[in-house]
Structures are given as C-alpha cells and as structure tokens.
Write a structure and sequence with these properties.
The protein is mainly beta. It folds into 5 domains: about 70 residues, no CATH class; about 70 residues; about 120 residues, Immunoglobulin-like; about 120 residues, Immunoglobulin-like; about 100 residues, Carboxypeptidase-like, regulatory domain (Immunoglobulin-like, Sandwich), CATH 2.60.40. It contains 6 helices and 31 strands. It has an 8-stranded antiparallel β-sheet. A 4-stranded antiparallel β-sheet has the order 14-13-16-17, with no helix packed on it. Strands 27-26-29-30 form a 4-stranded antiparallel β-sheet, with no helix packed on it. It is flat, with a radius of gyration of 30 Å. It starts with a strand and ends in a 5-residue tail after the last helix.
Length: about 500
C-alpha cells in the first residue's frame, strides 16, 4: 500500500515527503505515517483523508486509488482480475495526463479510480466498463468482456453534429453564406478586428476550402474554433465539431450584420429545460449592424490602473424616455430575439471581451434601432460605470466615433445596520447593485463593531443596498426593510441605514 497525500478540509491536498509504502499483515491490516515537506509536525485534523494506492504483490488484483479517513479503521475492497489487457489511445496529446476509472458492472455501477501504472504497463482486469478522463478531450468508454482483445483502444468521442437554419430577421427569408462556427474558448482579441470587407469575401469561399481561409485564421485569434461552415442557398447548415472537450456555443455572423450566439448546454441542462437540441439552432435571425468607436478613460487619474468595462445595449422601450427615437416596425421581433434563445439567454452581444480603459475600442451595435450604450465596470470599486446620456440611431454599416468616454471616481458611502432597539449589528454582509445597469448583486462588505459597512458607489447611478445573505425563504428575502434605494448626487460621503428584525439577524449566514 502506498500513501501519497493527505486532504485536509478547507486546506486542500498536502503532498507527503515522498511516497510512504507499507505492507499489509497476514490479516490484510496496515498502518501508515507520513511527514510533509513544509511542516513535519503537522497534525491531520478530524475528517482529513489520506490518498492511498493499493497493489497486490503478485498482481492478481488490479491496483486501485482510494481515499480513507485518517484515524479510523476502514476496509478497502480489491477486485481480482480475470484476464490481462493493455490500454492504448487512437489519438492523445503528448502532454495529456489521463485518469483511468473502473465503472463497475451495470447494474449496479460503482466508479473506482485505478493506478496510472495500469495505463502504462497493462494489468489483470475485472470484466466491466472502463472510462478515461482527459482534460479538454472526451473518449468513449470500453466494456471488457471474455471476448475482448488483449489491446484495448480508447476512441475519441465526437460531439453531436449541429444542424440548423439562418434567416433574415426582418424579412424571414433564408439567409445564405453566413459564417457558422462553434468554439470552446475565447482569446485575448476582439471579433470587430475582422472587417466587413473581409466578411464579404466569404460568399466566394467553397465549403471544402473553409478551414484554410483567411477569415478562419482571424477567427482563431478570437476563439478556440472547433468547427466552421457556411449556410447554403436555403439558409441551412450542418456543423460537426472536431473531437475534444465540451463545445460552449455556436456563433453565426455575416457582413453588415450582428453576430448571433447560441450557448450549447449539456444534455442534463436540456433535459431539465425540456428542450430538444435542434431547437437551439433553428431560425437563427440576422439583423443589420453598425459600429461604435470610443475610448473609456479614467477622469483625474493620477496613477495607471487596469480597469475594464463591459458594453451593454439599452433597448428596453419602443421610445426613449424623452419620447424620441421611434423604433422600426420589426423592433418587437428584434427585442424578442434578444432574449428568445431556448434557455432565455441573450442572443446578441455588443462584443465578447472586457474592454480595457485608456484604449480605443470598436463594438458592433444594432442598426436602424434606437438604443443607449452603457459601459458597466467589471467589479471595480474605485471607478464608476459609464452611462452616456445620448441615444443612438445608426444606419446599417455606419461607424460612429464617440471619442473619450470618462469614468469618474466612486464616492465613499456608509451603511449603518441596526436592530429594532437601535443597537449596531456586527459582521452583517451588505451588498449593492446598480439598477440602471440591471446588474447582479456585487460582493459587499461586512459591518464593523459599530454596525457600519463602508463601500464605494458610483455617482448619479440609481441602485440599492441589500442584506440578502440570510438563511430565509425566498418570500422572506423580499421584505422591504432588507433593501435601501440610493442615488448619490453629491461628491462627498453619504450615509444610509438598514434596520433588521431579530429573526433576520438570527438568519445571517456564517453568523
């Protein structure tokens, strides 16, 4: 038996100073002690576990990896192999580190991790199913029977083919020659670096020559491409991803149009949502686009700071609040498509990357639609999101230059949390969110001994503070006293108060 590491609750795995090998006695019992590189006096706390590799001296049982609780006598069951086999891969990256599992016999099925030595040297195996885990790659399991060959080969598991159709969102007609690709990652580059002039060349590309085209090479600087094709004369497409790990989404794009993204959920997510896979790629609509160029800057910045922003379109109403900006006849369909993917996820995005401050950026925006562009800040408490007041209505293909858009420093704000008797509540988490950005709750601060939480808030942006980290029902968390609206209009600190009931105080998480 070999002891390799100890896993401590909340502390992760601690590697032993070299493997500790021990032999079991005639009754199969063993004891093991280990020391650590950084602390020889480390005591393993309650609930800690030790990773062990159990091997039989005559190799009639196949070696397994298990985790046993320290300080408790436990039984580790070994399965006796009936026939010798070797494992191989039809294709495997040289730096991959596969993990082999025995999934048992169905039914019942109990997964056991096996010693990597079996992958390298082979061993006596029990009849049943074996599976392999490799990061970013998927392989089909192997079922070992009496008739299985000596050499067992893991074959890559191909993701399912995705078929669908692309339509003109305004006319409903078939949309031909659109780029359709699937991806498994994003890179440090922007989609808008591909110009409409480059995209116009796509219609002349033969479907068999797509993989080596200049546009595909450009797309690979933005995404981890797993497959690419184009829609045919009827708007139809069929896309077969290359072998590998999970495919995250499909993007459809064409010159002068907004890119459309459809996230590809797991089979379990589809079952929970009661959605068929082909619903994800049916009737993908294309709408005209324009472009906006701007540079987000930090006002009165004394020292360089790495601040990023995320562009958001505000197209919630048929008209803007001042009554201007009549929307087109097809606006209702466009807005519906924005949130009408089968899982309720956004269909269109201004861009797919965070935008760094003090750099010139270009984002795709809807054409012939009146909207406002907002720049949400990415979890930065020192600088405000940017909310330009002007609405835009751009023609297809138009490029608007906005110049510098300024982010101003945030304002210190205190939130006093008290009980019904006026006493301060210590260690109470207070969060905030910006309502003007429809944002989620930000990570807030804990109140100090005086019941005060201090945070920094953007000026002239509506929002609310909230005490929402409570072990209460969903209805109880809607209580009016748990939230406090704000809109900071002054350049100096402001104070707010939240009063909690005794029941709410008792429900504070981690208290």
């Amino acid at each position: 038996m070999i002891c390799r590491s100890i896993r401590v609750p909340t502390g992760g795995a601690r590697t032993l100073r070299g493997d500790v090998s021990v032999l079991s006695d005639d009754e199969g019992r063993f004891r093991a002690y280990g020391t650590f590189d950084r602390n020889d006096n480390l005591l393993a706390p309650k609930f800690a576990t030790m990773q062990i590799i159990v091997r039989d001296s005559d190799e009639s049982y196949f070696p397994t990896i298990d985790h046993i609780a320290i300080g408790q006598e436990q039984t580790v069951a070994l399965a006796k192999g009936s026939q010798f086999h070797e494992f191989a891969f039809s294709s495997l990256d040289s730096d991959a580190k596969p993990t082999l599992y025995f999934d048992g016999v169905d039914p019942p099925r109990t997964r056991v991790q096996l010693d990597p030595q079996i992958l390298r040297e082979g061993g006596n195996l029990v009849l049943g199913r074996y599976s392999i885990y490799v990061a970013d790659q998927s392989y089909l399991p192997i079922t070992v029977t009496d008739a299985s060959p000596r050499r067992l080969i893991f074959e890559p598991k191909f993701p399912p083919a995705y078929t669908g159709n692309v339509i003109d969102g305004i006319t409903g007609e078939s949309f031909r020659d659109a780029i359709v690709f699937c991806y498994d990652s994003t890179r440090q580059s922007h989609l808008t670096q591909i110009t409409d002039e480059q995209l116009l060349q796509w219609s002349d590309v033969d479907v068999d020559d797509i993989a080596d085209h200049e546009i595909v090479r450009s797309l690979k600087r933005v995404y981890g491409i797993r497959g690419v094709t184009k829609s045919d004369v009827d708007g139809r497409f069929s896309l077969v991803p290359t072998p590998g790990g999970a495919v995250y989404g499909i993007i459809v794009w064409s010159a002068g149009h907004l890119p459309v993204t459809r996230r590809l959920p797991s089979s379990a997510e589809l079952r929970r949502a009661d959605i068929q896979r082909d619903q994800l790629t049916s009737d993908i609509p294309m709408y005209p686009s324009a472009r906006i160029r701007f540079e987000p800057v930090l006002a009165n910045q004394d020292e360089p700071a790495r601040v990023t922003f995320w562009p958001v379109w505000d197209i919630r109403s048929d008209k803007q609040s001042d009554g201007s900006g009549q929307q087109p006849d097809w606006f209702a369909e466009f807005r519906s498509a924005q949130q009408d993917s089968p899982l309720g996820l956004p269909t269109f995005h201004p861009c797919f990357e965070l935008l760094e401050a003090n750099q010139l950026h270009e984002v795709l925006v809807p054409a012939d639609v009146t909207f406002k562009l907002k720049l949400d800040s990415a979890y930065n408490e020192d600088w405000s999101p940017i909310l330009p007041s002007d609405a835009f209505h751009l023609a297809p293909g138009e490029i608007a230059n906005l110049g510098k858009l300024r982010s101003t420093p945030t304002i210190p704000v205190t939130v006093q949390v008290r009980d019904v008797r006026g006493n301060p509540v210590e260690s109470c988490p207070v969060r905030f969110r910006y309502l003007d950005l429809e944002g989620s709750w930000e990570v807030g601060k804990l109140t100090d001994a005086h019941g005060v939480a201090t945070m920094k808030i953007a000026k002239d942006i509506s929002g609310e503070f909230g005490v929402i980290d409570l072990e209460l029902s969903r209805d109880a968390l809607r209580a009016a006293n748990l939230k406090q609206r704000f809109r900071i209009t002054r350049d100096h600190s402001s104070s707010f108060e939240i009063e909690l009931t005794d029941q709410q105080i008792a429900a504070i998480k981690q208290r």
